[in-house]
Amino acid sequence: MRPIKPFRLVPGDRIGIVAPASSFEKRGLKRGISKLGWWGFDPIVPERVLTHAKRPSDRERSRRYEEKAADIIRMFRDPSVTAIFCAEAGYGSISVIPFLEQVDLSNFPKVFIGFSDITLLILYFHMRYGWVTFHGPTVAQELYKGMPPATEIALQEAVTKVTRLGDIYGRDLEVIRPGYGRGRIIGGNLSRMIQTLGTSFEIDTRDRILFVEEVDEGHMGIDGGLNHLKLAGKFEHLRGIVFSDMEGCMYGDRRALLRYLRRYFHDARFPVVLGLPSGHGIENITLPIGVRAYISSDPPRLIIEEGGVR
Q1: Where along the chain do its domains lie?
Q2: Nearest CA among 284, 302, 282 for reference residue 293
Q3: Which strand (E) or helix (H) includes residue 280?
Q4: CA quadruple 70, 71, 77, 83: dihedral positive or negative?
Q5: The CATH number of the domain covering residues in 14-160
Q6: What burial letters (b/e) apply to 10-28, b meaning 16+ CB within 10 Å?
Q7: Check: CATH 3.30.540.10 for 174-304?
Q8: Which residues contact 85 (CB under 8 A, 6 or more apart)?
């Protein structure tokens, strides 16, 4: 089934800010909002979202997630809002999904963007409704004056460009397993992808290029996560894997990470590359989930064959 693309953003469009995951710094949010305004958009932050900047008490936690879900639903149903950006990641997105399951948002596809813990919502909306969603920056953390040019350009093009995005990173990746593969992109944070297994929005990797992102994980976390996906059958019909920079993983030892991945995928029947900086790290390249792409080991690149919006 061909994924449903949201409408592209144009200057003046309203961007709703939601906070499905952890608390966030209001100062960082204000900085990110200023950046969106400088780009020509009209960011709106519901008053209740600002109250979610503080970490909830145990007594407030259940009500807080219901409120967060209500904010997300309201933003999708509001015809004046074109896109939905997340304030920050962290933890908690999975707790809003039971409330989202109570409504039908299929008639309201919109740009929805975030990463890390937000992976759960990116995959939820993609798997349940077939929408193209976006793995990319959050407002309070990654959007600021002087942000890396590649991050800024990739985000702007992902949400405004209807034609082929092409080489969204523009630099060679590291080859783990050589080859060529073509398919639609799916994926996100490794630990959060695993949390979808057995749910109504379980990640489907058949004939897909799988994007895997993680931060500060050691050997046990990465090896356990990959083996979990493998045992769940998620590598059986893959067209390829693209790893992020895997910021801080293997205690920051890049050579150890390369040795491990090359040993793990030594007999893989699909290409595997490493180093697309989408997610944790200084650069955070926006990656549309659900679009056609191909990876090659010669040259070692990920090429996006279409736009993520219409």
Answers
A1: 14-160, 174-304
A2: 302
A3: none
A4: negative
A5: 3.40.50.10740
A6: eeebbbbbbbbbbbbeeeb
A7: no
A8: 15, 16, 17, 18, 36, 43, 113, 114, 138, 139
Looking at the DSSP bridge assignments, the partners of residue 244 are 276
**Structure tokens of 151?**
């991050």
Identical topology for domains 14-160 and 174-304: no
Q: Which residues on adjacent β-strands are paired with residue 293?
A: 183, 304
State phi, psi for 271 to the nearest 5 degrees.
Answer: -75, 150
Q: Which residues pair with 304 in a beta bridge?
A: 166, 293
Q: What pLDDT does 216 receive?
A: 97
Q: Do residues 222 and 249 make contact, with C-beta atoms less than 8 angstroms apart?
A: yes
| pLDDT one-digit tens code per residue, 170-183 | 999 999 999 999 99
Supply the pLDDT for residue 208. Answer: 98
Cα angle: 66, vertex 71, 76; to 5 degrees: 125
Q: Say whether the peptide bond before residue 3 is cis (omega within 30 degrees of 0).
A: no
pLDDT of residue 186: 98
- Band (96; pLDDT cuts 50, 70, 90): very high
DSSP code of 56? P
pLDDT bucket at 244, cuts 50 / 70 / 90? very high
Residue found by looking up tokens 């449903």 in the block: 4
